[in-house]
């Protein structure tokens, strides 16, 4: 199924689908002059992993598909592909907004050509499937690396073990490294939140779910969000005021969302309570932000410095927010000064769920 909007609005020119694509071809590969589409040059340690990089999805090699979760415009499954565990995401039609769900699928591929330790790797994607995999609700299928450790939402709210300063600062630094890399390549995520940050088996953060993302034109610092990009929105609790006002978005939108996410890591509480519309109005008109006054965690030295950092991240004026590149050394400095579990002040910087 073709995208209802020009794919060049969502993907770099050298990664756009070509009419030469076969029935089950991935749109993630470059056409070579005088030849069929070739797989990007990429080497991996294991032979099986390297076989994942193909311009087609070999459906007969897909095994043991089992549901993992669903939300937004899609469902995610755990599967085996050439004997390796992968994640399969099926982007579904939204009955209320079919255009938005199609745009969401193409937006998922904005970062597919990028490789970074703190970004979930895309293996292949297609808008066509064989008959035995056919689902009338599906728009397209994406194969990605499988990240085994759950997500930050679960780590914050569902697990009893404490999150000390050394840990939440490390998680924050991981997210910032991923954002810095994305922004350097002109990709704005626009839906940074704990549920969209996965944890690897090594306890490292990986940014996932690019269904709301935008690709900035080369040399542009911001981009207007028009009606043709109706998929853009993100989660209202993490949405910056400029997006709520319908103004052009920039990488600074992700910095605002990062600030809310870091606050959640520190406090292990939801950022806002109350009616959705009231929260949206208050964020724009009254400068509502998550509370830092009532939390003892912000009374420690690390907490006070983190409080200052947060206030810069969620500034109402996006021009006053630091970039991911500027924030990263500041957070690294906080990490180096973070107290350990043996310090007397550990109760001020480690929040444990009851």
Fill in the keyword field for this structure.
two-stranded antiparallel ribbon, alpha+beta, globular, 354 residues, Transferase(Phosphotransferase), domain 1
Description:
- It is a single chain.
- The protein is an alpha+beta fold.
- It has two domains: 7-145, Phosphorylase Kinase, domain 1; 152-349, Transferase(Phosphotransferase), domain 1 (Orthogonal Bundle).
- 29% of the residues lie in helices and 14% in strands.
- The chain is built from ten helices and nine strands.
- The strands form three sheets. It has a five-stranded antiparallel β-sheet with strand order 1-2-3-5-4. The chain has a two-stranded antiparallel ribbon with strand order 6-9. The chain has a two-stranded antiparallel sheet with strand order 7-8.
- Strand 7 and strand 8 (205-207) form a beta hairpin.
- Helix 4 (165-184) runs antiparallel to helix 6, helix 4 runs antiparallel to helix 9 and helix 8 (301-313) runs antiparallel to helix 9 (324-337).
- It starts with 46 loop residues before the first helix and ends in a 5-residue tail after the last helix.
Principal-axes geometry comes out as globular
Strand line-up of the largest beta sheet = 1-2-3-5-4
Q: What's the rounded overall pLDDT mean? A: 79
Report how far apart the termini are. Answer: 48 Å
CATH architectural label of the largest domain: Orthogonal Bundle
CATH superfamily of the largest domain: Transferase(Phosphotransferase) domain 1
